[in-house]
Amino acid sequence: MLYHLLYPLAGRFGPFNVLRYPSFRIIAAGFTALLLGLLLGPLFIERLRLAQYGSSNVREDTPENHKKKAGTPSMGGMLVLFSLSVATLLFADLSNRLVWAVLLVTLLFGAIGFWDDWLKISKRDSKGLPGRRKLLWQLLVVLAVYYLLLTDLSFRMEPRFPFLFVGSYLDLHLSLPFVSTRIFEPSLGWLYLPFMLLVVLGTSHAVNLTDGLDGLAIGPAIVSGFTFLVLSYVAGTTIAGFSLASYLRIPQIPGAAELGVYCAALVGAGIAFLWYNTYPASVFMGDVGSLALGGGLGTLAVLTKNEVASAILHGVFLVETVSVIVQVASFKTTGKRVFRMAPIHHHFELKGWAEPKIIVRFWILSVMLALVALASLKLR
Fold first, then answer.
1. What does the alpha-carbon distance between residue 365 and residue 5 come to, in Å, rounded to a whole number?
2. What is the pTM assigned to this prediction?
3. With left for phi above 0 and alpha for psi between -120 and 50, is residue 355 left, alpha or beta?
4. 300: domain range?
5. Is 195 left (phi over 0), alpha (psi -120 to 50) or beta?
6. Other CB atoms closer than 10 Å to residue 178's CB: what's the count?
7. What number of other Cβ atoms are within 10 A of residue 173's Cβ?
8. 3-state percent helix, strand, coil for the chain, nearest multiple of 5
9. What pLDDT is attached to residue 56?
10. What is the DSSP letter of 61?
11. What are the DSSP calls for 250-283, one per residue?
12. What CA–CA distance (Å, rounded) separates 261 from 221?
């Protein structure tokens, strides 16, 4: 918004010219989101505490020692979404369809998470929104955003599959980490649509599963946000005719640098939230935050052509998800459990690991995986 309002006045007031540079607006968005989150946090948490008085907000399928957290307010993810959205709208180029795509997925997933959290609180029931209904709404959101913002329905139509074969603003090729686009870059064609849905919805639910300890989910989310900031800036930046993407042999994505504004806002808002969510937490993220951030990160993976690399970057989220799948499959087939409790962070709790130790070690793993993902830029 400020970019559109103030940059045209640069001819009259020279300092406004700085808004033309994505790098400046990235820094400004991150700082704004951080400041908003820190300043609004205490009032916001107090309002949540009053509104949720009498609710435990502790999941039933958690270790016994989690009962001591009863009374801690949930739905703190709304603070993240507010700070992230305001900072993005202020400093991003709002004519960029990629920015709107990731922001809408984030906010609409947040709305679904809010619905889920509200049912849990209002009905005093930890089950909330049924899983299938939640998944259906998320599926509809991603499809709506894809067809409204990322496709050109007039470009190419196929009589047999009119809603699959359309002109897409997305590159339907698959970019593999550590493999140059000049060597191997297979096209998925219409298969890219279900693949995209798997990435976005899978990431959203993976973050949701990870959100079980104080600060456990938001830490890796901050790391991922910063990593995508680098990846998006590199993919969309051309300096004096020199394309960073071509040099690094990765897909060049016009306008992707603007996604860096969203990423910076996510990092800033996440750090502010972590100030209040770190152990022992003053507020929980809730599904309103975890589903939204996971959806945003999954969408970033799609928009920056790092769908496969995101499996490395989001390794912590992936392991948490796999641990649940393995636990359920093992119990249904053999009647035995592989882990003491799933997701896997509860397994380590029951083994006697202190909660802060689990959290910090998962953060360290997240940073290490982010470095591997960034290394894939050069090692091609």
1. 42
2. 0.94
3. alpha
4. 25-311
5. alpha
6. 14
7. 16
8. 65, 5, 30
9. 65
10. S
11. S---TTGGGHHHHHHHHHHHHHHHHHHHSSSPSS
12. 16
Residue 296 C-alpha from the chain's centroid: 4
pLDDT confidence of residue 160 = 47
Mean pLDDT per 10-residue segment, the chain (380 residues): 79 83 95 98 94 72 75 94 98 95 98 93 77 95 93 56 58 85 80 94 97 95 98 89 83 93 98 96 95 98 95 97 95 92 94 95 98 87
3-state secondary structure of 167: strand
State the Cα–Cα distance between residues 47 and 290, nearest whole angstrom.
Answer: 20
What pLDDT sits at residue 242? 81
Alpha-carbon distance 264 to 161, whole Å?
39
Residues 6+ apart with CB under 8 A from 180: 249, 380
> Which own/partner contact pairs does 187-191 have at CB distance under 8 Å and 24+ positions apart?
189/165, 190/161, 190/164, 190/165
**What is the three-class DSSP state of 168?**
strand
Q: What pLDDT shows up at residue 154?
A: 53
Would residue 129 count as lying in a domain? yes
Please give the Cα distance from 65 to 41 (Å, whole number).
26
Q: Go through 326-364 and write b for each residue having 16 or more CB atoms within 10 A of its CB, e for each that does not.
A: ebeeeeeeeeeeebebbbbbbbbbeeeeebeebbeebbe
**How far, rounded to the nearest angstrom, does the alpha carbon of residue 69 sit from its chain's CA centroid?**
26
Q: Tell me, what's the pLDDT at 125?
A: 64
Residue 200 lies in a domain: yes
Residue 244 lies in a domain: yes
237: left (phi over 0), alpha (psi -120 to 50) or beta: beta
| Pairing assessment for the beta strands 238-239 and 242-243 based on DSSP bridges | antiparallel
Name the β-bridge partners of 187: 173
- Per the structure, the count of domains in the chain is 1
Q: Is residue 18 part of a domain?
A: no
Check: CB of residue 41 under 8 Å from CB of residue 253: no
Q: Give Cβ neighbours of residue 60 (< 8 Å, ≥ 6 apart).
A: 126
Task: Return the bridge partners of 239, or none.
Answer: 242
